[in-house]
Amino acid sequence: MTAIGSPPSSKQQNGQSAAETWTADDVFDDTYREKAGTPPMVLVWRNIILMSLLHAGALYGLFLIPAASPLTLAWTAVCYIFSALGVTGGAHRLWSHRSYKASLPLRVFLALGNSMAFQNDIYEWARDHRAHHKYSETNADPHNAKRGFFFSHIGWLLVRKHPDVIEKGQKLQLADLKADEVVMFQRRHYKLSVVILCFLAPMLVPWYFWGESLMVGYFVPGLLRYALVLNATWLVNSAAHMWGNRPYDKAINPRENPFVALSAIGEGFHNYHHTFPFDYATSEFGCKINLTTAFIDLMCFVGLARDCKQVSKEMIKARVQRTGGGGDKQG
Question: Checking DSSP bridges between strand 305-306 and strand 101-102, what pairing results, if any?
Fold first, then answer.
């Protein structure tokens, strides 16, 4: 692992030093100024209808759980973890923040999990997430938490993007994503991969291998699992920006939220993550309530991942003393 040591003198927002960053795209831009006036909100009715149908189907899947076999419930858990890792270990920590390096087989594995998660392709997900860090809690943030819980949770997907999100997103340097053949292959074939991995595979595997009904397969490991992973991810954007403490940087909204960390397999240590976005663990506590970190550590052990970026204890202590809000760090 690569420990990032003492910071140099150059400073960024909230006292952040140049050594505390890993990509130029995920560094907060304190020169950005919001334009006067608010553009009209335009509803995207297709998304509203689809999200309503998805959550209705997920609710029906919840009532079908007693009819599902133990093997189907185990398969549902496997699909949950696999699809969540495609987001947390893949689109987020690997491709958005480049916090570690992954071999081709691991990148393919994570890309497949990302397609099962169906949260936009890796390229678009990473672009929006870098914009979220660079313009956090402003109009250029795709899911600006200052617009309320509902907006930052799901509402941002139900309306047209703010013009600043589009403008600033187009200016990000995404050459690393364009150069990754796995990212671009998934982008070219994203719709087909989603149909196969998000909907058909979760339904057909239990039907073919242990005789589960297609209805249970579609609604439980299919729609219910999909909706749960979606909402776990969205909680990072909403709940983890509103509820919890801020021991690393009291001047920013992201919080330490153990419930979100549990549901999103490690992504709830959000005050830490926005303070040190390049750290592969997104937490100073290693694998604690952090299945994604445990997975990356395992991949390093078997030789499929390497060069994990991690903040030194000295830097963490110095940052807490400089900008921290005190209180329990949820460790």
Answer: antiparallel
Lookup result for tokens 């990302």: 114
Q: In this predicted model, what pLDDT tens digit does every residue of 66-88 receive, in sequence order?
A: 999 999 999 999 999 999 999 99
Q: How far is CA 323 from CA 160, 246, 273, in A?
A: 35, 9, 14
Structure confidence at residue 9 (pLDDT): 31
From residue 30, how far is each of 14, 37, 138, 187, 238 by CA, in Å?
9, 20, 11, 31, 22
Q: How far is CA 179 from CA 22, 70, 115, 123, 147, in A?
A: 18, 43, 19, 11, 35
- 257-315 pLDDT, tens per residue? 999 999 999 999 999 999 999 999 999 999 999 999 999 999 999 999 999 999 999 99
Q: Show me where the domains of the chain are located.
A: 41-246
Inter-residue long-range contacts of 3-6, CB under 8 Å, 24+ positions, other chains counted:
3/310, 3/311, 3/312, 4/278, 4/279, 4/309, 4/310, 4/311, 4/312, 4/315, 5/312, 5/314, 5/315, 6/312, 6/314, 6/315
The alpha carbon torsion through 169, 283, 107, 152 (nearest 10 deg) reads -40
Q: What is the pLDDT of residues 92-130, one digit of tens each?
A: 999 999 999 999 999 999 999 999 999 999 999 999 999
